[in-house]
Amino acid sequence: MRAFAKACGYAAASGVQRYMDADFDGKLSPAVAARMVEALAGKGDPSISADEVYALVGIPTTNAEPVQYEGASTQRMRQDVPILGTALGADRIDDDIAIEQTYLFADEIVGFAKRPVILDGRADVYGIYVQGSSMWPAFEDGTIAFAETKRPPRIGDSVIIYLRRNGEEHEGDDGESARTVLVKRLIKRSASFVELEQYNPRLTFQVSTKEVLKMHRVLTMNDLLS
Q1: Burial class (CB in 10 A: 0-12, 13-18, 19+), 203
Q2: Where are the domains of the chain?
Q3: Three-state SS across 123-142?
Q4: pTM (2 decimals)?
Q5: 79-225 has which CATH code?
Q6: What string of pLDDT tens digits covers the 226 residues of the chain?
């Protein structure tokens, strides 16, 4: 026990005694596990690996330094991001290839998603349930996509394109309502069209700017975590 304690960096056997007690059933901290790895890795026949020691305390294999966080977070995610109602719409046909469209019920909030802390205080964010498989594997059917209304999309961003009721501004188009939306990736934009991409089946296509009511950027995982 003294030799093990010394190998772990403790001055006396008491540093590891409680962990070697037959009645000990507590959880090792990452810091203690790291000490034991230093003492045990490479010992025995067959030799003990660092991964085996970490596995015993539920720490996944990694080359990162274990870090122990103390105390509880003062912030918890609030479940208040509105999720707007969606339904799979009739396909739009482009060169005999189906382009999935989605009906969006902007006035219908079907639920609320948990708000990542980084989005606290932002009223310009909402969520929708992605319908269909056209953007798989980036977005699976039924997953939630978070969108923001203030920051303009950049080339390469996933976007939600709102299409005018009649494709252009004339009778029946109030300039505010969308007949349907497209969840796609933005490839190019100009004064006369936007070029979009879908993944399944993979194709790029253009939509006239006369059809586009508005376009919102879909937030990435990096946006939500950093």
Answers
A1: middle
A2: 2-56, 79-225
A3: CCEEEEECCCCCCCCCCCCC
A4: 0.63
A5: 2.10.109.10
A6: 888 888 888 888 877 887 787 777 766 666 777 788 888 888 888 888 877 877 766 655 555 555 555 555 545 678 899 999 898 888 888 777 889 999 988 888 888 998 888 888 889 999 999 989 999 888 988 899 999 999 999 999 999 999 987 654 454 556 667 878 999 999 999 999 999 999 988 899 999 999 999 999 999 988 888 6
